[in-house]
Amino acid sequence: MRTTITINDTLFRALKMRAVESDESVSKLVEDAVKYQILEDLEDIEDAKARENEPSYSFDDLVARFKAEGLI
Does the predicted TM-score (pTM) go above 0.70? Predict the structure, then answer.
């Protein structure tokens, strides 16, 4: 599928340089980056689901405990 995206000029120049260095197209590099991000998100979701039954702790309680123990 063909689409149009807007990319910061500096980032696009870096992307073009990377494409030349790796002998790949800009489109391929962008597609790979999007795939990588989606796969990483899916892994995060799976990890969160696997841990949803674990007990949770308040950040404020943790900070208070660290202070009481002289850790911070």
Answer: no
